[in-house]
């Protein structure tokens, strides 16, 4: 639920434009997003009707002041003291990401992995000083991004470091420079999505990054880059990787800055080594990002299919026709019903096209024709607006943004409610999908004793395959929710690996995906990656445990 | 001149369809391509009129049987003998790539860097055995690809290995599997361009790789991947990197195989580490490549501009308009004249669009409008054909394919004639272009004592920048041609580095580009790359000297 998906459909506008960085007050320390958006107790209680066997009352949300946090084991030198906090609220809110298992542990008041300290550097020089100190003091450094990791990417787990520092770059949040000729901007890594787009708007030129993961409000540019986030575009440029012109990365072995280049064939791409490195090789401090003109032509439509298989074939045909829809999101019957986009067992395909330069009606018409050719019923369309012409489009979009809050409400009711996502080539999709539906259905029954929901949507599609995204909702037992989910998740990773489907399309590896990732990653590449880690981070302080086991460390 | 550019313009067909792998007989051992395409002596002599001060007669082409080759210093074990040749013709033809300085040295009979042996493995198992032996015998292994490197990528230079083995994978030349649902094929790395497309045609499905570098006939899939070749598409998917689904790479530390995935966010991309690794980290043996439907709608046009600057602005507008032309090639006045596409000081922009699914007339009309808006004169167009509707398009295309043979003819006349290419963002293009024209013009005068030609074309363009490609033609002194070019090339690398323009957009780094590459590559990435090299190739046998200095070796 972290770095994923487009809240704006074809509308082109972020979901809540005008918002600014949500760091600090207003953010939930235990759950998704903003405290004022969380479900009140009464709405949580009402959710009990969704699943059999849930307790009647929600878990209370602990008061952050009453949490038990171990005393900090390390202290920064005086010169760095002004950058570092050991306040309980700061430490508590930087203990976990926002995975279901994180939320559940927080609700149960389990603060075991809390960092000793939270650092808020204001400049790259601050960051270099912090890393220097951490290296000499054997302090693990965990880049926090916006804290929206759903894969254990920001949580210290195990290891024997003398201390743990959570690194929060949210004070480094400026768009530093805009090059309108090349349509690119130099942007600091700590900026949250809304503030980034606000600054681009203020600086003129009509440019936008157009990267709208579901976490848009609560994640940062640096987090997107470090985790290869999936963005706005359902086709063509689906990952933020393609929007990167150059990056600056501070490593314990020095600062890496690639040249701003539109394209290059000079050796393996330096940026591609740091993209997806999840803070294990260095800390991304800024990047030149490719921008787009703001689209002025937009249109969207929803198509209904009686058979999910027909809808999949329609999506495959669309992905291979070179039409490049900005949105091409398929909801299976369960997902469509959950979103309120359909109630009759139909699947819904939401299609959106946009352009800053050309009318898009022709492309939308071609998309509708392809969808109809595969058995779809086009139920309406909205041209040049936010897609309001079709209620299914609107329903899906509202539900999409509301979903993480709903998940937290369900979590408080001790329902198991989590997602996982993957990607595979088209030749394997049907078999994989059946295996997931059957296998996860069975795992849910085995773990919980009753059936649950296993829904699917496709978030990003490619000419050669698709990225399905699964939602699991099941009855949990209070106090055992996390362990129950872990068992189901383990079954999911086993199924994905058996079908050679990626352990993650855009949620990153973190620590939770290590078992699947270790099977997926070619062993010689693992050797190379470990060697690169040892060269750049010889003391092993950078986000130990993500991507790989900590290599042997040089302790000063 | 190696991995670059589209010989087919918008025509979609390779220049010489139906050709098969040109390995073996018919290939020139000293110059580009096929012996029967080389300029006869009389045509070489006629070229003397082009530049002042050239000798009246061409350098003779040495008889390969009369070359002086040092005796091989190593011998393979008996079990591998059938895979290895020490024949003088085989060794001579695997001594150099096809850079100007390579051709000149060959013409002067300088075979100093000749490999001791040439290996022709027939399978991955053969290759593993060869690498095992090379590791124990301290033999450097140089993957040859198709031998079309123009950057010293296939030439052993310096170093103290006990022997040198050139590795020719041309016996591993099969399309092994085609997945028409996902539009992808598993292809062995040793296949040459024409044979690859022939096999795809034979296997049905109407699919094509559509990667047509200028070297198409004389380069292999493995070479394209190892050097991040620039291909058919002037926009969008310009590098072969984007066409890769997964790769198999044999390294001394084991074989790496990535999963076939349409997209993934699981850690840094394994493929992106091997793409551009130029044989220094492993030997690519096969890849799953993304294919396209064969285009059935094609159209092209030529646009003339009185001012090169206006043409550049037109290209920038086109690159940022989301129209994705397959061809968008700008020839400056000198280049246009050389190609016979214009004779009056005008620049020529060749535009081509293609689609397997939709008529392209509308897109071509939009492109022509944009070109006209920037001062261009549309001189004709050819719809749904090979662009024959405009003589400038046809003239450019013929000249493009003939150019390497012309270069060799000029080389025999002791003219200096070479190219270099780069890329930069739009904000820096004009300044860079002026610096190259002025600086290289001055370097040519200083080195040769008389003015030369410095022409420019743009081969690939991006929303945020462009890849200009420069041709230099000047008067050389017989016997000093190579050294003279090296001086000019050194000035070029200095200018590129000063402007932070990449040392290569698609010709690769090899050994010749090391000075520029070493300045361009961020030092922490260099540390990581060297560490990866040591982990995968601990004995330092793989293409020593490309990308980096050989790290300290474990010698058995």
UniProtKB/TrEMBL annotation, chains A, B:
PROSITE patterns recorded: FAD_PCMH
Residues annotated to bind substrate: 407
Keyword 4Fe-4S among UniProt keywords: no
Molecular function terms from GO: alkylglycerone-phosphate synthase activity; FAD binding; oxidoreductase activity
Region Disordered, annotated ranges: 1-37
Residues annotated for FAD binding in this entry: 143-149, 278-284
Site (Important for enzyme activity): 329
SUPFAM superfamilies to which the protein is assigned, alphabetical: FAD-binding/transporter-associated domain-like, FAD-linked oxidases, C-terminal domain
UniProt keyword annotations, A-Z: FAD, Flavoprotein, Oxidoreductase
Pfam families hit by this protein: FAD-oxidase_C, FAD_binding_4
Needed cofactors: FAD
InterPro entries assigned: Alkyl-DHAP_Synthase, FAD-bd_oxidored_4_C, FAD-bd_PCMH, FAD-bd_PCMH-like_sf, FAD-bd_PCMH_sub1, FAD-bd_PCMH_sub2, FAD-linked_Oxase-like_C, Oxid_FAD_bind_N
Enzyme active site: 469 (proton donor/acceptor)
Keyword Oxidoreductase: yes
GO biological process, one term: lipid biosynthetic process
Coiled coil: none
Span of domain FAD-binding PCMH-type: 111-294
Low complexity composition bias: residue spans: 7-33
Family, similarity comment: Belongs to the FAD-binding oxidoreductase/transferase type 4 family.
Protein name, per record: FAD-binding oxidoreductase
Taxonomic placement: Bacteria, Bacillati, Actinomycetota, Actinomycetes, Kitasatosporales
């Amino acid at each position: 639920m972290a770095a994923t998906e487009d809240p704006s459909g074809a509308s082109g506008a972020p979901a809540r434009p005008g918002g600014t960085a949500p760091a600090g007050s207003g953010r939930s320390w235990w759950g998704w997003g903003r405290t004022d958006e969380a479900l009140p107790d009464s709405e949580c209680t009402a959710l009990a009707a969704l699943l059999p066997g849930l307790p009647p009352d929600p878990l209370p949300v602990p008061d952050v002041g009453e949490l038990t946090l171990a005393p900090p084991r390390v202290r920064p030198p005086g010169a760095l003291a002004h950058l570092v906090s050991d306040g309980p609220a700061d430490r508590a809110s930087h203990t976990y990401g926002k995975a279901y298992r994180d939320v559940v542990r927080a609700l149960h008041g389990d603060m075991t992995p809390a960092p000793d300290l939270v650092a808020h550097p204001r400049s790259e020089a601050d960051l270099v000083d912090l890393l220097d100190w951490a290296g000499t003091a054997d302090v693990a450094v965990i880049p926090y991004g916006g804290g929206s990791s759903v894969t254990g990417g920001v949580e210290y787990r195990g290891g024997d470091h003398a201390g743990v520092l959570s690194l929060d770059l949210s004070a480094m949040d400026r768009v530093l420079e805009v090059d309108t000729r090349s349509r690119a901007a130099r942007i600091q890594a700590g900026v949250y999505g809304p503030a980034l787009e606000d600054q681009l708007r203020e600086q003129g030129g009509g440019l936008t990054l157009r990267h709208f993961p579901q976490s848009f409000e609560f994640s940062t540019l640096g987090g997107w880059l470090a985790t290869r986030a999936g963005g706005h575009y359902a086709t063509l440029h689906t990952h933020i990787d393609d929007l990167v012109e150059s990056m600056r990365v501070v490593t314990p072995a020095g600062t890496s800055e690639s040249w701003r280049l539109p394209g290059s064939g000079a050796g393996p791409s330096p940026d591609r080594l740091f993209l997806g490195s999840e803070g294990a090789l260095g800390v991304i401090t800024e990047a030149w990002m490719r921008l787009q003109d703001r689209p002025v032509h937009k249109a969207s439509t929803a198509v209904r299919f009686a058979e999910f298989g027909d809808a999949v074939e329609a999506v495959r045909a669309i992905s291979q026709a070179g039409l490049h829809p900005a949105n091409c999101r398929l909801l299976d019957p369960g997902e469509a019903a959950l979103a309120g986009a359909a109630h009759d067992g139909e699947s819904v395909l939401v299609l959106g096209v946009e352009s800053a330069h050309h009318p898009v009606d022709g492309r939308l018409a071609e998309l509708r024709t392809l969808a109809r050719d595969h058995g779809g019923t086009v139920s309406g369309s909205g041209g040049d607006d936010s897609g309001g012409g079709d209620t299914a489009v609107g329903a899906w979009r509202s539900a999409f943004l509301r979903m993480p809050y709903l998940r937290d409400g369900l979590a408080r009711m001790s329902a198991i409610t989590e997602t996982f996502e993957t990607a595979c080539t088209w030749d394997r999709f049907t078999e994989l999908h059946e295996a997931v539906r059957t296998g996860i259905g069975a795992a849910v029954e085995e773990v919980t004793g009753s059936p649950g929901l296993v829904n699917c949507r496709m978030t990003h599609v490619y000419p050669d395959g698709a990225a399905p995204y699964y939602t699991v909702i099941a009855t949990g037992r209070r106090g055992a929710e996390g362990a129950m989910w872990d068992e189901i998740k383990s079954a999911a990773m086993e199924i994905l690996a058996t079908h050679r489907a990626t352990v993650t399309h855009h949620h990153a590896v973190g620590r939770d995906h290590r078992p699947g990732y270790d099977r997926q990653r070619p062993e010689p590449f693992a050797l190379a990656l470990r060697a690169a880690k040892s060269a750049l981070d010889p003391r092993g302080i950078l986000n130990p445990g993500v991507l790989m086991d900590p290599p042997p460390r040089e302790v000063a």
